[in-house]
């Protein structure tokens, strides 16, 4: 069963799963309520006594204030975890006294590292052929720092530049073809963007349009909704240029998720190389969007 | 007689010095307040995704502010200016505790909302703008704020009931599971489609594999950091609550409970890390902050 099938089947089951989860929560709450309601009869709920420690020390203060209050409440409930009268005895400890603390933190670290390794194993299954020196470099780099601001990252490490180029080429070509009808601005901007490498330009365009995103997001969008989006793009031909542009841009307004650090570095690079052209267009689009809505 | 034995082997309470709390509170309040102002001021950021991030930052700002206030009160009470047992002081303390509770719950729900929003963006990409309109976002945020406010007040009023803590812990655990599964789903889907795209017949296949591996590695890193920070900052405190309920008299549990202030410090430091994980990743927001902070007088930025 491929991962794709698992995902699809699990997506179908996700909503009922969530409802079941909700039911479980409600049942647990009700059970806990019944349980606590009957706890007066249960011996092992010592915590209530631990909470509501009758603090006799209060009596002297109350005497000073008023007799009536002292008569009204002989005991004062206090939420003190660390009472002076320490009821816990530390005799006869077999293990180290901080064993629970150590065990908890070790378990937490193991869980986080295990999760990271599971995720990286998932990525490794998709990359069988790699050059050894390059892969070794890549292996070391992610561990060292989050934000890679190497200069030569541009050529080799633009993880989503090539797939972006490949995957979104169909979109871009389609868009350009529609623009051939006479709207030159897109071409001009493309030429302007094309000053730098083609990959960078396209990634710049697409990257600026969505706040931050990843190749995964773009490719996924294309793959999942390819037919639907293609039809939608066809239907946009009749609209005005701004409208079409805005809708096109809004499709790529995806949240920053995967490749966050990647896109953040590229965001800075884009700020250097592509001034606020795309930003202005996006802001115009958003204004138009808001006007429309 | 007993006290001498206790002094030898009991676990002393670990005290986090007040300057640490004040520093964490001040820095996280400044960060989160800036994020809130940036999102409100920039019209490009009036979108559902950014509204949830703004709400998260607002909750964190309130949390750090109230924690700082509480520490100030404790300092004054220790010095002697405040009466620890006075009615007005206990009322104020209760109000601060309920605000803290509300902001912690709110930040947690906001993180859950951000995860669900990202999930909808990815799995229902085309219908996203119909599903997550600004009106619905406003309604969701209103519900979150109301529920958290109510729960905060309730939790402090009825704190001595175990039910409250059981609910709290179960809610935390289930939300954690939901967030983890949502992000793992999103990661898996991103990976699958990255593979599909890379399988397209384009030149430079070897580069594809390396770059895909690199991008997915970063995806794994991002998910781990996101989820790992959440778990590391929140679970010690919740384990503390579980320990209180389960083994109040056990000496091992007592030693865990002695680290309470450390766990609360971790919880408040979550407000310090969250802007770096969520808000400062957004280029638009960084741009706005740069403009706000640096461009008051300079002509350097447009």
Automatic annotation (TrEMBL), chain A:
Its main location: membrane. It is found in: Cell membrane; Endoplasmic reticulum membrane. Residues 128-154 are annotated as: Disordered. GO terms for molecular function: corticotropin hormone receptor binding; signaling receptor regulator activity; type 1 melanocortin receptor binding; type 3 melanocortin receptor binding; type 4 melanocortin receptor binding; type 5 melanocortin receptor binding. GO terms for cellular component: endoplasmic reticulum membrane; plasma membrane. The chain crosses the membrane at residues 17-38, 98-122. GO terms for biological process: protein localization to plasma membrane; regulation of adenylate cyclase-activating G protein-coupled receptor signaling pathway. It is a single-pass membrane protein. It comes from the Eukaryota. It holds the Pfam family MRAP. The keyword Transferase does not apply. Belongs to the MRAP family. This is Melanocortin 2 receptor accessory protein 2b. It comes from Haplochromis burtoni (Burton's mouthbrooder).
Automatic annotation (TrEMBL), chain B:
It is a multi-pass membrane protein. Residues 31-278 form the G-protein coupled receptors family 1 profile domain. InterPro entries: GPCR_Rhodpsn (IPR000276), GPCR_Rhodpsn_7TM (IPR017452), MC3-5R (IPR001908), Melcrt_ACTH_rcpt (IPR001671). It is found in: Cell membrane. Keywords: Cell membrane, G-protein coupled receptor, Glycoprotein, Membrane, Receptor, Transducer, Transmembrane, Transmembrane helix. The keyword Transmembrane applies. The keyword Cell membrane applies. PROSITE patterns: G_PROTEIN_RECEP_F1_1, G_PROTEIN_RECEP_F1_2. The chain crosses the membrane at residues 20-40, 47-66, 95-116, 137-157, 163-186, 222-246, 258-280. GO terms for cellular component: plasma membrane. One of its GO terms (molecular function) is melanocortin receptor activity. It comes from the Eukaryota. PANTHER family: G-PROTEIN COUPLED RECEPTOR. Belongs to the G-protein coupled receptor 1 family. This is Melanocortin 2 receptor. It comes from Haplochromis burtoni.
